[in-house]
Amino acid sequence: MIADGGFIPENVARRFCQGQIFGIGSTVRQFIANFNSGKPWYECGPASAGNGALMRIAPMVIPHVVAGTENLWVDTALSAMITHNDAGSISACLTFVYMLRQLLVMEKPPQSEWWPETYACIARDLEGETRYRPRGGTLKDKFEGPIWKMVQDQVTEAYSRSLSVKEACSWWYSGAYLLETVPSVIYILMRHGHEPEEAIVRAVNDTKDNDTIAAIVGAAVGALHGKGAIPNRWIQNLSGRTTDRDDGKVFDLIQKAKNKFWLT
Fold first, then answer.
1. What CATH class is the domain 9-230?
2. What does pLDDT average to over the chain?
3. pLDDT digits (tens, 9 = 90+) for 62-113
4. N or C: which end of the chain has fewer CB within 10 A?
5. Domain residue ranges in the chain
6. Distances in Å between the alpha carbon of 77 and those of 70, 89, 122, 259?
7. What's the Cα-to-Cα distance from 167 to each of 100, 127, 162, 217, 225, rounded to whole Å?
8. Which residues of the chain form beta strands (DSSP E)?
9. Strand ranges for 122-218 from DSSP E
């Protein structure tokens, strides 16, 4: 997006198919196989409600952070469907980007109920009445429905019972399936969105798919509190890699993004 001056979906799709992706999931692996077989990029994304698209969606805000045009929503939807062409995934990505935009301009952390209420309100019409079922946890075989419904009902119920993050995430399971990931993210932010260090620690320590859940939680508390709230000891000595041999590249990209989209 930095090189292109914005989001060009076919270029992003092509980039996914160049070089090694560390920690690649089955959905993206299938996307790459589809793309390399000659299919157009917009037909390559499997119908998957995995969390891979949501994990990487936060940077979609960057080209639009100043202008805030409606193209943000088009870009977000296309970015999601490149690899995860599924109603639950696309709606989760759109809803999370909406929430990030709100968090960026907040002067103080929102009330706890803002997190599930906002997610359910925005995602309801986008996702509709999808039918997902938990793969594990206490709610296995006890829930079937859309992701927003899980957030609206089960996350708020867990909060009313004062469950710890670990207890709540064991209730609905906290794996790589969006029906598990989204409730876990929202619950962590409900309980700890006002304290970014604790939110990230809980995401890392108390969930199963902890790298992805912590990345999503980190994007939210980063948007709300800014870089200054992230402990410096967590930033020092990071490799900043995007491959196995480009130390410092992430920090270079961050500065280039600032220069390209914010400072001009």
1. mainly alpha
2. 95
3. 999 887 778 999 999 999 999 999 999 999 999 999 999 999 999 999 999 9
4. C
5. 9-230
6. 12, 9, 14, 25
7. 26, 27, 10, 18, 26
8. none
9. none
